[in-house]
Recover the amino acids of this structure.
């Protein structure tokens, strides 16, 4: 009798998925309640292992809902109507605020600090519930200023304003250095070559080290200050492919000061999300060049 190939297939993991929103407050509370939960980029959801996972998730969601102020959205809407935020980047929709701006890392960081803010990937905008109006108002000046700085015309004007200056030369030198795709690592504490690594230039995959010593001035000017008495060597790197980054589990905690001083660490979920976004952009650019989109 022929052997059924499915007999050797690994058994599916027992557990449940939940499409939790990605705001910092909710995610932090969820991970505290479910420390074994893991994020799946392919499914855009969290997986909680265990036979009773679905019941535990449902109970937790019910408790979270019960704790919410039933009148919070109404209060926030009233506060906005009494003293509205006037901005071309903000729309007061029936269910929530909608924020659409040029891309800016500052904007992303600010909005992610607003409770229950959510990135709507289909519509390419942020939504913020009315209950979070006070925090939105507090952070709005920084958000709007960053949006204005990120407009194409503003970026072009800044480039023209510094053309030929010392600042312009410094930026060009930094760009030339980054194109070399090298990074300083401690000679006696080198990163692994088999997985994604967090660095001061983003998440990378190191591919080799030839033992060339790093010049402290170059390192301090373009990367991070060298530890006193330390010895660093150059390591070559490449950006990660989307498939590699999707299968990389994030670190449970942000890097400590020792890791920041060392220059490399296990990447956080936020760092991996940024790297995955960049990888998707590179893939789309290749597809456009190849005429596949």
């Amino acid at each position: 009798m022929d052997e059924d190939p499915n007999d050797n297939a690994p058994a599916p993991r027992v557990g449940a998925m939940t499409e939790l929103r990605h705001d910092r407050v909710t995610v932090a509370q969820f991970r505290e309640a479910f420390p074994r939960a893991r994020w799946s980029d392919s499914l855009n959801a969290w997986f909680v292992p265990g036979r009773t996972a679905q019941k535990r998730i449902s109970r937790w969601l019910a408790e979270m809902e019960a704790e919410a102020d039933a009148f919070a959205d109404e209060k926030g809407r009233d506060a906005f109507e009494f003293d509205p935020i006037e901005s071309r980047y903000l729309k007061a929709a029936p269910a929530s605020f909608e924020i659409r701006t040029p891309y800016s890392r500052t904007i992303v960081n600010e909005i992610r600090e607003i409770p229950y803010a959510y990135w709507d990937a289909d519509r390419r905008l942020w939504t913020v519930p009315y209950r979070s109006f006070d925090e939105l108002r507090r952070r709005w000046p920084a958000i709007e200023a960053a949006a204005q700085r990120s407009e194409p015309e503003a970026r072009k004007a800044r480039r023209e304003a510094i053309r030929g200056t010392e600042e312009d030369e410094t930026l060009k030198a930094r760009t030339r250095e980054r194109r070399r795709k090298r990074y300083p690592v401690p000679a006696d504490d080198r990163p692994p070559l088999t997985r994604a690594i967090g660095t001061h230039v983003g998440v990378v995959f190191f591919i080799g080290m030839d033992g060339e010593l790093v010049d402290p001035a170059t390192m301090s000017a373009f990367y991070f200050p060298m530890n006193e008495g330390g010895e660093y060597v150059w390591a070559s790197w490449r950006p990660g492919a989307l498939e590699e980054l999707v299968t990389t589990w994030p670190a449970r905690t942000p890097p400590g000061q020792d890791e920041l001083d060392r220059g490399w660490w296990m990447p956080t979920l936020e760092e991996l999300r940024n790297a995955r976004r960049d990888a998707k952009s590179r893939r789309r650019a290749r597809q456009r060049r190849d005429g596949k989109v």
